Every structure is written in structure tokens, then in C-alpha cells.
């Protein structure tokens, strides 16, 4: 059996931020779009190092998905970032039409999946995100559980050609 080394208790969103920052240094086609959660999703370092490839969309998730789909036409690899509820349920129609049925290379990255966002209530939680996305043609779904998996997934999905959702639990996860 493989032996794993504990690298400390780091949250999944920090794994996403670390992976995205590394991609920013190694792949100029990677762009990041955020729906007003830059700090929460640890996208700050990417934004600081690559301001020309970072787009703060605000609380306009549907626009973010549409912009990401459009950027793929020019060869960009867009990584969108927001909470799982807003990146799937709120924008299902845009993902369905502009990403999945159009076979766009969009990376839909979501934190706070499931019921892990307790203090923000039911409006910020979603249980059906994976089910919604798995029904779409060509959609790949990845669900990470710790910092290392999330960083590795972030790096790997840049190389994957096709639409993809990956979710992870809350920032208060177990590391």
C-alpha cells in the first residue's frame, strides 16, 4: 500500500489557488474569471502576477460562463471560480448551451460544495451540482477532497481538452 506524508492542514481552496498560480507561470493560455470571490477562492496571487489574464466579473455568474465559452474560441483555457451553487445551479442554462452542447474547453471550478457552507445558509448550498453536470454531454466531473488533490487536479485539467466541473468542500475542510 502506498504511504502518504501529511503535508499539513491546508484547505482545498488553497490547493486551487496554488495550482492556478503555477499554471499562470507555465501556461500563457490559462485565464481566470471570478464571480466576486477572489479572496475566498485564493485567486489573489494569480491576479497579482497576471492581471491581464484575470477577469473579475462580479456577481454575474451567467455572464462569466458566457465570457469563458467565448474565450475558448481564441484558444484560451478559462478557469471560472465561484461557490458550487452559483457555478452550476444558477447558470445551468448557460453551461448547457454555451459550454456542454458547444463542446467548449471551459474549466468550471467550484468551492463550498454540498452543505459545507453552513453559516451562509441554504441559498449558498447545493447537493445536486454533480448530478446536474453529469447529465450534460461531454461534461467531466471531478470532486477533490484535500489540498494535494485539488492542486493536482487544477494542474491536470489545464491539459484536459473539454468541458469540466470540479468541486471541493468548504475552506474549513480537514486539510
Helix/strand structural class: alpha/beta
Count of spatially separate domains = 1
How many strands, which pairing sense, and closed or not: the largest β-sheet?
A: 6 strands, parallel
Number of strands: 6
State the main characteristics.
175 residues, six-stranded parallel beta sheet, 7 helices, 16% strand
What does this structure look like?
- The protein is an alpha/beta fold and 175 residues long.
- The chain has a single domain (12-167), classed as Rossmann fold (3-Layer(aba) Sandwich), CATH 3.40.50.970.
- 38% of the residues lie in helices and 16% in strands.
- It contains seven helices and six strands; from the N terminus they run αβαβαβααβαβαβ.
- The protein has helices at 12-26, 44-49, 61-73, 84-89, 92-100, 129-134, 147-157, and strands spanning 30-34, 54-56, 77-83, 107-111, 140-143, 164-167.
- A six-stranded parallel β-sheet has the order 2-1-3-4-6-5, with helices on both faces.
- Helix 1 packs parallel to helix 7 (147-157) and helix 3 (61-73) runs parallel beside helix 5.
- The chain is globular, with a radius of gyration of 15 Å.
- The two termini are 21 Å apart.
- The mean pLDDT is 88.
List the helices and strands and how they pair.
Layout (H helix, E strand, L loop, with lengths): L11 H15 L3 E5 L9 H6 L4 E3 L4 H13 L3 E7 H6 L2 H9 L6 E5 L17 H6 L5 E4 L3 H11 L6 E4 L8
Parallel strand pairs: 1-2, 1-3, 3-4, 4-6, 5-6
Helix pairs in contact: 1-7, 3-5
Task: Sum this structure up briefly.
With 175 residues, the protein is an alpha/beta fold. 38% of the residues lie in helices and 16% in strands.
